[in-house]
Amino acid sequence: MSAVTNLSRRGFLKAGAIAGGGLVLGVYLPQLNGRAHGAEEKFTRFQPNAFVRIGADDSITVLINHSEMGQGTMTSLALLVAEELDADWKKIRAEHAGVDPAYNHVAFGMQMVGGSTSTWTEWERLRKAGATARAMLIEAAAKEWNVDARDCTAENSVVNHAASGKSLSFGALAEKASHLDPPDDVALKDPKLFKLIGKPTKRLDTPEKVNGSGVFGIDVKVPGMLVAVIARSPTFGGKVKSFNAEKAKAISGVKHVVQIERGVAVVADGFYPAKLGRESLEITWDEGPLATLDSKTQGEQYAELAKTQGAIATKSGNVANALASAPKKIEAIYETPYLAHAPMEPMNCVADVRADSCEVWTGTQFQTADRAAAAQITGLSPEQVNVHTMLLGGGFGRRAVGDCHMVREAVEISKAIKTPVKVVWTREDDTRGGYYRPRTYHTIAAALDANDKPSAWKHRIVCQSFIVGTPFEPFIVKDGVDGTAVEGAADLPYAIPNLLVDWQMAPAGVPCLWWRSVGHSQNAFVVETFIDELAHLAGKDPFEFRRALLEKNARYKRVLEFVADKAGWGKPLPEGRGRGIAVHESFGSFVGQVAEVSVSPQGKVRVHRVVLCHRLRANRESRRH
Amino acid sequence: VHLDGDAVRFVRHAGFARDGREITTIEGLSSDLSHPLQRAWIAEDVPQCGYCQSGQIMAAAVLLREKAQPSDKDIDDCMAGNSAAAEPISASAGRFISPRK
Predict the structure, then answer these.
(1) What ipTM, to 2 d.p.?
(2) CB distance from A393 to chain B under 8 Å?
(3) What phi and psi values does residue A575 have, to the nearest 5 degrees?
């Protein structure tokens, strides 16, 4: 699954041989911020695969296929390449990759970022990319010196031949290496020999984020670009019935008013006139079937759905019998609301649609889908569409949009007005625009046996699915259960003999989307709160109560014990202060927390201290241990 | 940004851009990352997504110009309102200040 696509084996991107040998990307990245990389007349760089370029000037560029949105991929992924390349870390820079199947996520088969997967899924592929480049540089040096490649070593961006004392820098070897065929396979380092991975390293993207040179989607400017603000339906699923744009068009700076699939766009020579124009539109909406939707009625509907069993996510023993015969029982209802992702950088997208090309600049988590959407709207082939991934001012899942509505809006408008356009959402547009974490309603019941040990756990979750009916359904929906609805609940770590977790799908309507840790974000709260209730019912310490149920879950248990120890669990606290503990696993990472809190006589909760233990799913080695 | 030397939220003061007042953006802090705050931000690896960092740094720059030895409370008060990653940001501002004590 981790094969590196070597340039010389297939026509990668717009690669082509140029004077002086070497293979380079064609003009691909935007002329922004003095960072253009165009094909030039003479040799400029050695690019053995999709992920690394080495210049004659010793510069090393790592192409990052998992968008940087604050999680640090520009550094962590560059480290994987640099480690196996034996590169001088100071010479490494990272930049977002273009769109190509070579950059597809090894687990998802599409170019996207999400699911806390970037480091572990690239662990092998990017190390191989670095090792391949290193092997070719060594081979180039061996040829140059007429010595055996096995007698050469690489260190700090230099190839050395100990016997003769000769050495050449990667940059000096780049052109020669570019004429060689990549090796079929390369050996990877023993992790014990790592010099960079696992060592404290400064982020590569900090300098550009503290001097204003980093380019976020909203910073993009292209010549002749106009700015659009869109009036979208005030109800979810509503459509434009008719509109009058006369007043909007009369506003100074407003250039066009265009109806698109999702509303009416006012296009102006700046954001402010576009926004004023939008306020002056007179639109009659077909408000659609959700016009009368309200939270109270929906809540009642969810409570009704919770009365009957849904699709079974996990089942063992006989919960009904165990609950009926138990000496002690407890029940609870939990509700969580719709939540907006609210990334700091407002939603935006720049599109420039031409007769034979379409350029899109945006901070996206889902390049493959965005490119396909732009191709579909323009009638161009995907290869004629370039999606330029800009820095994301927060993603959290909001910028991994299967329906690609942000890109579609911009492409539709640019196609209509034949001019580059930037669509800007106001913060209010984003907050009321949907794509929320689904509202959820949980009923949960548990029982203790005669020895105060948990004997039954029954958890029913009611929520919408944002997976059913999408291309993700075959991957995420199993036996009628949307995995994103029950994750963190169906995989209950606590050993309870009679267990039932099921899911009732609530009616679709409000646009929902993966929000941060997705189902875990609410299910961890419900499970960890309710296990505390159960410990209380048993009259036991919540740490000891959990620990006794984690005998078969070693990593959970270790994280729980570690955080309890570090937090001084059980040690005396000041008057009026208490401790709470929770542990959870999501996407292969384990988190334990202990919070010290107090509650004022007025009921105000104050958090005094939180101790956190986080075991990351970083790589195969750490997963084995 | 700094408007005539004072830290303001540009979104609320965009109109001033037209009336001849002096505006300094993050780019005006230093051309080579040499400003002590930029150095502190790099040393502490402060930014995550980084979108708010220009505002954070420009607010801190005025605080330090006005008060070379601000208290923790001064720092918290000054940095409130510029969202996200508040803890490491205050820590960096603190790191910058402490060597001068």
Answers:
(1) 0.85
(2) yes
(3) -55, 135
